[in-house]
Amino acid sequence: MTTQTRDRHRAAYFAFDRFPSSKGSAVHIGHMADELFARRGGGLLGVLGGGDLPRYQREDGREIVRFDARIPNLLDRAEAFSAWVAELIAPHLDALEICHVRDPWGALPVVTVPGRRHRVVFEVNGLPSIEMSHTWPWAAPATLAKIAEVERFCLRRSDAVVVPSRVIAGAVARHGVPDDRIHLVPNGAVIPEAPSRPAGAPERYIVYVGALQPWQGVDVLLRAFARLADLTDLRLVVCSSMPERRARRLCGLAERLGVAERVRWRFVLPHHEVAAWLAHADVSVAPLTGCARNLDQGCAPLKVLESMAAGTPVVASDLPAVRELMSDGEHGRLVAADRPAELARAIRVLLEYPEQARAMGGRARAHVAENLTWSHSRARVAEVYRTIAP
User: Rounded to whole angstroms, how far apart are CA atoms 344 and 283?
Assistant: First the structure.
């Protein structure tokens, strides 16, 4: 099933993620791959496909090859992806200098090449051994332990490990990776021009942007929104990167809470449309839960950065990874996770004091422009490439 590429590449990037897509991971992949390939005359991008995405695509010097095998079991699919990467990379080994990977499934075949000459950059945005205990709760502890061992094996054999937050850096260090091999490259955002108001946007609304997994805390947000029932003109807009079928549980909760008529759902929106919904919202909310996935492993929520870049004040859970991006009272408000009453109170205060809220949004936008754009992120990862270049 591997598509033969036409060139021999000096750089390769592999991700067990669908690309392109409406998810934040796809935005990140696009920027990092572009930076890697810009300095090496193009490159090979191996990602997940499916749907109407072509198996092979060529864009200037970048060749995109997509793994689209339909394998229902996640671990079987991951194992098949590893074999696919090994086959895909084989013709390039004589020329390959740097290989950037985002997960152990792509890392394993590139760190185990006999006599390998290429350098490996392992970018860790999450650890499957932790993620899967939340996304795949029926996974046996022994299975998760084996995945953790694969993670350790790949991390220790990588030349550099890139992380988007200090919390994730700590999780990587606990896997035995030396500190001098761990590089902090925060996520970035684009400072948008003033986008037009989305068609059909409510006059007054708060917004949530992102996925719908339990750790995102959308259920907490719905419970908080129910406490704002006296604000009869206020609407909640949920811009989900997931398809509508994944929202059934949350839609049912909205019905039971009596807020369904006041919630507007938008599914799988193009990224530029999400930016418009953010820019015209009164408040953006990032209600991440205080689970192990967000605390022990950490996260680097693009929803917070992109809200700040839009100049929209943010109400977010007071988690260590979020505190790396924003300050309470300066760029928005931080509240204790998993507490709908406190979340509702913080949202209400920003709505009641719009001038202060706008000032917070302005400071947030300036903070991102000065420190946290994708240009900043690309410059940092370019320095990592330069440091380990053969």
Answer: 12
Q: Which residues neighbour 37 within 8 Å (Cβ) at sequence distance 6 or greater?
A: 11, 13, 43, 45, 61, 62
Task: Render pLDDT for 216-263 as a digit per residue (tens, 0 to 9).
Answer: 999 999 999 999 999 999 999 999 988 899 899 999 999 999 999 999
Indicate the SS3 state at residue 297.
helix
State the pairing for strand pair 62-67/98-101.
Answer: unpaired
Helix locations, the chain, DSSP H: 24-38, 74-89, 104-111, 128-135, 141-156, 166-173, 218-226, 248-257, 271-279, 292, 302-309, 320-323, 340-352, 354-371, 374-388
3-state secondary structure of 236: strand
Let me know how long the chain is. Answer: 390
**Distance from C-alpha of 140 to C-alpha of 121, rounded to nearest angstrom:** 30
Q: Name every residue whose Cβ is closer than 8 Å to that of residue 115 and which is 6 or more positions away in sequence.
A: none
Contact 215, 293 (CB under 8 A): yes
Q: Which residues on neighbouring strands pair with residue 240, listed in sequence order?
A: 210, 267
* Residues 278, 310 contacting (CB under 8 angstroms): yes
Under a CB-based contact definition with an 8 Å cutoff, are residues 231 and 203 in contact?
no
Inter-axis angle of helices 218-226 and 340-352, to 10 degrees? Answer: 60
CA 308 centroid distance within chain: 16
Tell me the C-alpha distance between 276 and 280, whole Å. Answer: 6
pLDDT tens-digit readout, 308-325: 999 999 999 999 999 999
Mapped onto helix, strand or coil, the DSSP state of residue 43 is strand
pTM, rounded to two decimals: 0.91
Range list of H helices, 102-211:
104-111, 128-135, 141-156, 166-173
- Compute the distance between CA of residue 272 and CA of residue 251 in angstroms, rounded to an integer: 25
For residue 264, what are its two tokens? 């507007």
Helix (H, G, I), strand (E, B) or coil at 9: coil
